[in-house]
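INFO batch 0412 | record 1 of 1 | parsing
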Amino acid sequence: MLRVTSSAAAKAAAALVLGVAIGLAGIGGPAQAQTFTAKNVNLVVGFPPAGGYDTIARIFARTYGKHLPGNPNVVVQNQPGAGSLLSANLLYNTAAKDGSQIAMFASSAALEPLLGNAQAKFDANKFEWIGNLNRDTPACGAWAHTGIKTWDDVTKRKTRFGASGPAAITAQHAYFLKNVLGADLQVIMGLGGTGPIILAMQRGEVDASCGMFISSVRAAFRSDYEAGNLRIFIQFGRQSLPYFKGAANVYDLVKPGPDRELTEFVFAQAEVTRPLALPPGTPAAIVAVMQAGFDKTVRDPEYLAELAKAQIEADPMSGAETAAAIKAATGASPEVIKKSKDVLAPPL
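INFO prediction complete | emitting tokens
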């Protein structure tokens, strides 16, 4: 894990970048520039503007180009659809393999091929992972006018959860609450990313939403959360976060055994919160250049200052760490995967 606040980690990352440079000695300098020739890099975000994915992607894009050969422009494009499956499919199947097209989509989408989703036309382990901008903790929250304050409140009533699509954690985590913890809830699809769902909550169209990462709650939704308008009632990290003010933790609620294994499968991958990928088949030299540029960017003082201004506390992961996390998530036992198909999928 690449922690931006650790001097030891910074030294380790410097060694990693040096190792990449040595490994690319044959294409260093002008040869490296010949390998990576893109004048523009399109960074496709699989969610609408103004949400957590979009916010950190735009901050990253402003600095990333200066750490790539030729200092290309990095242009953010929003391509929402099916909980970010659309952007994952297009990157995997149609994107150029020259470094000019990268994408950020939900790590939960990586599970969709395993869950039998015919719309997921990719193998998550064949993407070339550039890195993960933030390791984060997801949660679910409700708007104050619903009267929901705690997890116990949710268990005593029927609750409408807003979601973007079946591949998004706004849907998957809600179905987990319904099918594993027994909550009486309805999932309403097609509301887009977190920003549009928040608006639907404010208008009373839905009562609650999952996918409330702590980075987003601390940043985009901080004022509403600290004013008591947005209430977090359950969190999904291995350790409970004080900022979530005593919200229930799913790891404390599930039973030992199969349910615990399923919990690990569903929520461990959610910590890979903002991953960046290249299409499969991208030349190794280009992958290495873009991974090295990522590692430099997440330590760039300019980038860190922009994060601080947006009140985002980042905990990035290298490309190798991200690939390992995705591989671990997709390497669950057949029994766990079979059970997850019933737990995370919309009802027929």
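INFO post-check: The chain has two domains: 7-135+272-344, 139-268.
INFO record closed
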